[in-house]
Amino acid sequence: MSLNKRFARNIKNNRSFYICIILLTAIVICLHVGFHVSYKDQVAYIDNMREEVNLEDGQFTTYLPLGDEEIDELRDEYGVDIEGMRYIDMEGEAGEESEADSTIVRIFAPTERIDRYVVTEGEDIQSEDDILLSPLFAQRNGLKIGKEITLRTDNQDAKAHTYHISGYCVKLDYMFCLKNYTDTFSNTDEFGVAVISAQAFDELPEEEIVSYHVIRYNGAEEREVREALYDKYYTTSYIAKDNNNRITTADDQLAELENTTQMILPMSVILIVVLIAVVLGRKVKNEQKMLGVLSALGYRRYELALHYSVFGAVCGVIGGILGVLSSIPLLEPMAELAYENKLEPLPVNYVIELPDVIYAIAFPTAAYIAAVFVTALLIMRTGTINMIKGLSGRTKKHSLRMIGMKASFRTKYRIRALFGNLSRTLVVLFGLGLGGMLLAFGYACVDSLEYYCNTAVRESGKFEYEYFLSGLYTQPVDDGTEALSASFAVDGYADLVTLMGLENKDYLTVETPDGADIELKNGEFYISEMGSHIYGVEKGDTLTVYDVASMKEYEIAIADVFHNGNQCLIVSDTKTTSELLGIPEGTYNVVMSDKQLAFDDSEILKEVRKTDIEESLRNNILKGMHQSMALIVGFGMLINIIVVFLMVNVLLTESTTSISMLKVLGYRDREINRIVTHIYHLILPFGIAIGILLGSWLNEYNFIVSTETYNTFVEPHMSAVSVIKCIAITVVSYVLALLLLGRKVGRVSMVESLKNNRE
Fold this sequence. Notes:
The protein is of the alpha+beta class and 759 residues long. Helices cover 50% and strands 17% of the residues.
C-alpha cells in the first residue's frame, strides 16, 4: 500500500482546513515581508545618506564668537569638524490641500562639510531663483516641482521673495520635520524646510537670520571637546544628536517597525502551529486503527509521522509563496503606511531578496512540519495492538457523566464537549483572546491618545503659552508667571530633562497622580511622571544629571513624583534652583501665561502653545492611528473567524455519530446546531474578557516603553464605547464562523450511528 495516494484524497476531504491555514499563513507572510523589506531597505538608504551628508554629532551656540580662525584651531587641536549653519523662517500661504491657514518655511543656506542636503526628486539649485523644498511639506501643500512659491519674513514691510521649485530635498538633521527640536509631533501642513543658493541667502535680512554651529567628533573625546568649548567660548546651548528629536525619531520609528516585524511572524506562526497540532492531532487519533494496521505491515512510526508532516509542509510552502507574491505590489503602500506623516519620504527602491523569500517560506514550513511530526509521534506512542483495538493506552476516568446533575440535556452535552477535549477548547479560547487583544489594543491606543489630547495636556497647568527666553531677565512680567529653567542630560538616556524653579504654581499644576497638592519646599525637587518613566526613578531616589553646556554634574534627590505626562520636568522653588545653577535669585528665563504676551522675536528661544500640541497630535498620530484601525480590526476578525471555524469543524467531524443519533431521535437540524455547534457560547465571554484585558495591558506597556520615543507619557485609557465595539466585533466574527458551518449538520446521514454500532 502506498501512503502517497492518500495526500490528494486527504486534502480534498479537509479542504476547508487547508484553505484556512494557507490563507492565514499568506496574510502573515505578506505583512512580515512587506514591513521587513520596508525596514531593511529604509535603514540601508538612511545609513548611506548619513555617510553622504556627514550627519552632525551635535549642534551648539556660544557666547563668544566662533569664527573661521577659531574653528581651524579646534580642528587642528582635536581633529573635529565644525561648520556654521544659518537659517531664516519665512511665511507663506498654505496650499489648497492643507488644513493650515498659513505656513512657515525654514530656509537654509547650503553647507559644505556637515549636514549636506540630498536631492530626492527634481533638479538641484541652478540659479538664485531656485528653491528645494522638503517633500512631505510640499506634498501636503500641493507645491509641485515647476511651480512657484512666494515667501516673506515677519517684517511686513520687507520685500516678498518668489522662488521657482526646482526639486525636493531631504536634510537628515530634519528627517522628522520639527520646528523646535524638543517638540513631540511634527505638523507638515504648517512647517517645512528648504534650501536656496548661498548668494540668494545673503540677500535676506541679516537681523532675522539664526546662526549656530554643528560638529562632528571624528573619534575625538566628546567630553573633552565640549569642556574646551565651554571654557574658551562659553557654550550657551548644546544639543547632542541623541537628544535631537528631528534626528532620533527616524531611528525610533525604524526600531519600532523592526520590533513589530519581529513579533508578527513568530507570534502568528505560533497560533497557526497550535491550530495545526490540534486539528491534525485529532485526525491522527481518529485514524489510529489504520495506523496500527500500517504499523503491523512494517511501516515505522517515524515514516508515518513524516507522512502526516507533508500536510503541514503543504500549508507552509503554498501559504509562504502566496504571501511573498501578494506582498510584491504592496511594498510601497505598506512603507507609506509605516512612515506616513512621520518621516520625510525617500526614493527607496524596495526589493524582496532571495534570503527574504527563503526565510518567509522556510520558517512557517519548518514550524508546521515539526508540530505535525511531534504530534503524530505522541499520538502513536501507544502500542500497535492498542492502536488496532482503538485504545489510547490510558485509562480514562468517566468524570463527566453528570448523572446526578440537575441540568438540561443540551447543557450537559455542552459541558461534556467543552471539558472532554480541553486542548480544543483552549485553542478556541486562545484564538478569541488573540483576536480580541488586537481589537482592544487598537481601540485603546486611539482612546489613550484622544484622552491625552482632551485631558492630559490641559491637566498639566492653566497656561496656554510657555515662552522660553533667549536670555536671563529680572523685570517682572504682567499677566504671567516667571520661572528659571535649565536643560540637563542624564548618562545613558537620549532625552533631556528641564529643571524649573517656580515662585508660585499659578499656571503649572504640581500634584501627585492621586490629585494631592504638592507644596514646593526649599531644597526639594519633584519630577514629572514622564521623567519618572524615562529615567526609572521614584520618590526617594537620586538622579545624577549634567549641564549640557558646561558638563558639570549635579545630584538631585527626588522628593516626589507629580502628575504630568507631556513634559520631562524637575521642579523646585526659585531659591533652590537659583542656588543650584549659581544664578542670582529673582532671575528668570521662562514665562508662563494664559494669554499671548508681546515679546520680541529676538527675546524668544522657543514658544510652546497648548493648542499647537493638541492640533499636531490630532493631525499626525491620531489620524494615522484611525487609518490603521481598519487593518487591525480586519486582522482581529479574521483570526476569530478562522479559529472558531476550524475548531467547530473539527468538533462536527468528530461528532457525526452523535449528530446522526440525534437525527434518529427526531431532533431537527436547527436544534442539533444549538446543541452541538453552539458549545463555545459558554467560553465566548471569557475569550472576550481575556482579549480586552490583554489588549489594555499591551496598550499600557506600549506607551510606557515608548515614552522616550514619543517624548511624552500617554496615560492608558479605554472608553466604554470601545469595550462595546470589541465585544460586538468579536461576537459578529464568532457568529459568521458558525454561519459558515451551519449546513454541515444537514449533510450528516442518519445511518452513521447505525454503521458505528454495527462496527
